[in-house]
Amino acid sequence: MIERARKRLSKRAKRGFRGYPLATVALYGPDDRTATKLTVGIVPAEHVDVTELKRWFLEGADIRNDAGITEEVLAFITAAGARSVVMTDKIIGCPHEEGIDYQGPTCPVCPFWAGRDRWSGERSHWCPR
Question: What's the confidence (pLDDT) of residue 26?
């Protein structure tokens, strides 16, 4: 079941840009191995900010392995009428939000991400801690 849902989402992303609305799918986690948060943003047109944003959370397990959440994501994307899907191929940062879950440049709950580039996962030359 999970493989079918995951394949459907990946297939939508692999089709490439087919116009707007565009759905952006991103994964976040306490480290680069376990995704505990998944977000989907809907961009209705070029040069327009995200108009719809939905977040899913799963503590203690990898959200990528939850068929129910993947089905909800697909339903949200379909309901928004997204013609294109852009999806990260890896976890791109901490699931906590600066200014909402914590104050300052680094999350105290996710030390793995302190001083790391969220796109490459590599340590920066500086560490803000």
Answer: 96
